[in-house]
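User: Hi! I'm working on a homework problem where we have to compare a predicted structure to a textbook description. Could you give me the structure for the chain below?
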Amino acid sequence: MELQKFPTELLDSIFSHYDPFPNDPVPTSSHFRELRLLCTAFCRSTTPLAFKRVRLCGFNREAFERIVSLSQRPELARYVTAFEYKVVEHVSPRTDRPAIDLIG
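Assistant: Happy to help. Predicted C-alpha cells:
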C-alpha cells in the first residue's frame, strides 16, 4: 500500500503514540517537522504534533522572527498549545559575573 493511500486515522493513531525521546520530560517536535516532509499523508498527520509545543532557545532576532512567522500562519499557529522559552544566563563582559548578580 502506498503511503499516500494510507488511512489518515491510522497514521494519526500511530503518531499520537510516537515519542522520539522517551526519557526526555519535554519531547522535541523537530522529528515531527521532519516527518512532514516525507509525503502529504505524513504531513497531514504530523503537523498538529510538530507545532504543538514551540520552543524559543535564544534571545536573538532570528528566534523572535521564527515566532512572528509562525503567528502569521494561522494554519500552523492553531496547533500551538505550549510556548517555552529557555532562559540563558548572560555574563557581563566586563566582570565575567552573571548579569543577575549585577542587578541585585
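For your comparison, note the following. The chain is about 45% helix and 10% strand. The first helix runs from residue 8 to 16. Good luck with the assignment!
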